[in-house]
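ingest -> fold -> write
write: protein_1
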Amino acid sequence: MVDVLNPVFMEASFPVITTSVILPLIAALIVLVSPEKLAKPVSIIFSGIVFLITTYMLFAYDPSGYKIQFYEKYEWIPALGVNYEVGVDALSLTMVWLTGLAFFISFIWSVNIKKRIKEYFIAFLVLEAACIGVFVAWDLVWFYIFWEAMLIPMFLIIGIWGYAERIYAATKFFIYTFFGSLFLLIGVIGMYIYQFFNYDVLSTSYFDLVKINLPYNLELIFFLLLALGFAIKVPMWPFHTWLPAAHVQAPTAGSVILAAVLLKMGTYGFVRFSLPWFPEASKYFAPVLFALGVIAIIYTAMMAIAQTHIKRIIAYSSVSHMGFVTIGTFALNMEGINGSIITMISHGFTSAALFLAAGYIYERIHSYELKDLGGLARFMPVFATLFMISAMASAGLPGLSGFVGEFLCLLGTFKVSILTAVLAGLSLIVGAGYTLWLYHKTMFKESLLSAERIEKWEKLKDMNTTELLSFVPLVIMMFVLGIYPTWWIKLIENTSAAILSKFVGM
């Protein structure tokens, strides 16, 4: 039987996970002491190596049974039960691979950065190490170290390389996420103390803490503490207000990482910790999470329609898509969990591509406002085609990645709450509406083209090699996941079953 309490540990013959965490830090040190002209190639090369490592892990992973693979464990503070413990199951692995892809693409995209080049790439390299660490850490002290370490480089990326209101956006991002992290820390410390006094065990290992049977009321309290930290990171309505500001002000690569990686940390936390640790509380609060998920889907979709700034529209759409992950997760069945993980992967592709598209438009037109755009398809057909595919994938067009995950989330939700599934399903129409409207306003609406604009835009160049290298892999993966989702579902299904194992018979 697949059981989260009894995983098989497969130790790595070579520390590939630790290597993937350390390599970006080594690259950051090299960039620090090297001439500025080496910052870009060093960062791209090292990030490319990390992506190759994560890709190797993805194809070398054995999906049969529930196994923690490429596992490493070393003593750190044995008196307190704290160890360096890393490894991956299918949930961790897909998020690590997505992280490697997103950062590699972001580094390629960033070759034209001109402001404080060394500091820029150092910030992204440190951020990459922290993000990978979050997804591979099985010791809660290390998990929290990586979780908090991520805040500083992203704060700097928004605050230094962002736009006019970057300081406000960076500060809001930091305050919100740090506030949530404090509740997460309180919850983890509480579990640690309870374990010591009731089991006479001192351990911060996930696999020890998951075995604790908490009293019902205490389980509800711990669930809420961790849920607040995860909900802010998702971000879940009504804790979402930091995200549009952060996306609007962040540089393009920063928005890509925010959407493709950082938002997944919150939903990853719910699936990884909340469900296996607090099964009774998860069932108890499922209706509340359904309600918040539906509100996020509908409310932020309506907010997206009301925006005129491209990045703000895409930011609100991200909150809406994370709402599907929320309802799929708390459907507490295989279809829902599989759908949540697939949606996280798909959203990594689509959101990254849409923010790259927004950045591409800004570099050509120097504006994110819809009133300054229109009719671009005539002048940039290659970009218009790739942008269209990304928009359709985000809207959930069958045959592309967005459809698979959202369908499974709705199917899983339908089994437990028809009303929630219907409301979320109807909102797909709104999502398709604002996505098509965004594309129409930027690419087709030639009534916005004055003679002066036509003369100016006839000189615009279509996508160059660097931009294609950033964009095309994401579009390819949208088709791969959309046309052949079976491989991905088989990869994750035993992990999903293990996560739900505590709910069997409940």
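write: protein_2
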Amino acid sequence: MSHHIIEAKELQYSYPDGTVGLAGVSFRISHGESVALVGENGAGKSTLLLHTNGCLFPSSGSLRIGDCLLSKKNLNTVRRTVGMVFQNPDDQLFMPTVFDDVAFGLLNLGIPENEIETKVMRSLETVGAGHLRKRPPYKLSQGEKRAVSIAVVLAMSPDILVMDEPTSSLDPKSRRRLIELLKTFKHTKIIATHDLDLALDICERTIVIHQGRITADGRTIEIFKDKELLDRSSLEMPLSMKNCRE
């Protein structure tokens, strides 16, 4: 199933001011994998994620999304393949009601109006937010906004789900609900996060990025046992692993 694949080869990106965001990143993520992307602030996590749905384009190197290379020519195909949940839900929620927000992308895809109601409500019910359909997004809690922002993406039926810091600003109950929800998704997933316990719960594989380069790529449990690697990357062992004896 090549349409579920993400493959980067020597991916490089520099911002207009010369700041290097990515410095030769290579990896391959296959169908059904759940992969955590971890690193300190400014390591390049968000820069990499913004390439996966064509918000940014590489300075050099290549990024294959599903069956095509990332390019302006293939942008529509890439964005149908990859659904991205941004770090701040307010970047995705801007319509008068929750229903309108979830329906927005479907309307742009030309989905018949008689099908939109069903698709919107199915997506909202999946994240436990069906009761919010008539609410204005600005009146929602952070946990509710996060759930709706995921529903916005799910309504588009992407093959690949990309999330940037999905548990940021969530209370413990909302965080646990999100983790349990993500466990049920069969999508190929890439989750950039500082929440290493979430990564341990959901992702069998972890990629560590430091100063725009991949410094480790392997089984999550093994990477999180490597205290020296975590220290070099300004990370700490997940709380659930501390004081554990092997």
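write: annotation protein_2
Strands lie at 6-14, 20-29, 34-38, 60-65, 68-69, 82-85, 160-164, 188-192, 205-210, 213-219.
Residues 2-237 form a domain with the Rossmann fold fold (CATH 3.40.50.300).
pipeline exit 0
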